[in-house]
Design goal:
Blueprint: E1 2-11, H1 14-43, H2 52-57, H3 59-65, H4 75-97, E2 115-118, E3 125-128, E4 136-140, E5 144-149, E6 157-166, E7 169-179, E8 190-195, E9 199-203, E10 208-210, H5 214-217, H6 219-230, H7 242-276, E11 279-284, H8 287-290, E12 297-298, E13 306-307, H9 311-324, H10 326-340, E14 343-348, E15 374-376, E16 383-385, H11 386-397
Helix pairs in contact: 1-4, 6-7, 7-10
Amino acid sequence: MTRRAYKFLLRPTVRQEVALTAMLADHCSLYNGALQERRDAFRHPSRTSIKYGDQSAQLKEIRGFDPERQGRWSFSSQQATLRRLDKAFQAFFRRVKFGEKPGYPRFRGVGWFDTVEFPKDGDGCRWDSTPHEAVTRVRLQGVGHIRVHRHRAVRGRIKTISVKREGRQWYVVLACDDVSAEPLPATGAVCGIDVGVVHYLTTHTGEHLPNPRHGKRNAEALADAQRALKTFPRVRRDKRTTKHRRAVAKVAKLHRKVARQRLDHAHKTALALVRDYDRIAHERLNIAGMVRAPRPKPDPERPGGFLPNGAAAKAGLNKSILDAGWGCFLGILANKAESAGRVVIPVDARNSSRTCPRTTCGHVSGDNRPNQATFQCVKCGHTENADRVGALNVAIRAGLVLPDVA
């Protein structure tokens, strides 16, 4: 049994869309009010500490004081909003404890608060769907029955229901437990893969999948939209003109387009691998560390000056890594493999493309890779494509193939 999330497009009427927008605004107001209360309590000389339980106990009084804004929405969804703030503070204190960048919880603007969660199906919301119904609807307290574009069947037990706004579109997200796996028939094939920026991935047999570079292909249109947006002065959201709002919406729309393209490609690639192979090995990557900016190098001869540290070139590489979306792809691959009864094996990524895969050699050196595309062992002279060597070493470390294959 696994967990799965289903995301469906909503088809609200004009009145329902107004109600949904008001629901987000009121939950945002509740979130900001609770955050302000915590800040004021901490700044008070008594240093009072306010927890989720204290604020949740005040909800009944808040709903009674403001029935037009807070009283018409689900009590449970408002508790979920307060719990969301409590999680933000827990993460803040955890980062402080371990010496990380704290990131104190911030107030949310109406445009930056896009999700309302209902912790339980039937408590303020109801998923009204039967297998034989032509139209699926979800009922939300204070909004009504909203039509849902349900493009696939929902399996498992619905645990939580969330309503999310993306641009001018609305979605419902169902988090389901106890979703039964659907094992695929065994193929007897295994695969080691190496992800990259030139090729999206390379298998240990030497097959290359091209990198679609969705961000780069849309970079020109995005740059034009951002330049047009910069012509407007920075003002408060409620002071923006119609043209300013359209410029903001265009930039956001292009970013969502790239994200959807990247996600679609990751899903299709992962599904193809899961269908073709019983066991799949990949590198265990620390992507956050890989895209970290290089540290500045102070110039000992010039106080206050710095030496070149390759930051510009590293920024280009970081951009390509993030555009490829390795983390998104590997996460999707793990989920699809679990659902299909396949095995995914992450292995140590160190020196995977610098190690000679031959049994009689196994030499490790940075000189084995004279350039991005070529592997040439300085000890035994073995020459191969560098990405294929990386994938082959991944498969060897996972025990899927023997070094003699090389």
